[in-house]
Amino acid sequence: MTHIVKVAEGYSFIPREEQTLLEALEAQDIEVEYQCRQGFCGSCQVKLIDGKIEYTEAPVAFVSEGRILPCCCRASSDIIIEVPMTEIPPATGTDN
Ligand code: FES
User: Fold this and answer.
1) 7 lines ligand 1 (CB under 6 A)
2) CB 82 within 8 A of CB 47
């Protein structure tokens, strides 16, 4: 089942089911810092504002309350996350 991922500041998308949340964000040209991509280092963590995720593998890195590791999880409900980034991709299908 697919779920909507909303990035704070009003950008939403529907990830492909086989993608981790990190892969889904990258597919939207949303850059998230990462290193191991396997739940070991913690560098990819983002804030989960609302919704639920499930880990594809149990993370080893320490993650503080309210934060998640997108490299090894998927949305299991519609979610809202806050990603530290400088620029949100422009919305498609609108005239400038
Ligand atoms: S990239 Fe290392 S925990 Fe996600």
Assistant:
1) no
2) yes
Binding site membership of 47 for ligand 1 (Cβ less than 6 Å): no
Domains and CATH numbers, the chain: 5-82 (3.10.20.30)
Atom of ligand 1 nearest to the CA of 42: 3
CA distance 68 to 30: 16
List phi, psi (to 5°) of 25: -65, -45
Ligand 1 pocket residue status of 37, Cβ below 6 Å: yes
Which neighbouring-strand residues pair with 53?
Answer: 75
> Could you report the per-residue pLDDT of 8-64, keeping only the tens digit for each?
878 999 999 999 999 999 999 999 999 999 999 999 999 999 999 999 989 999 999
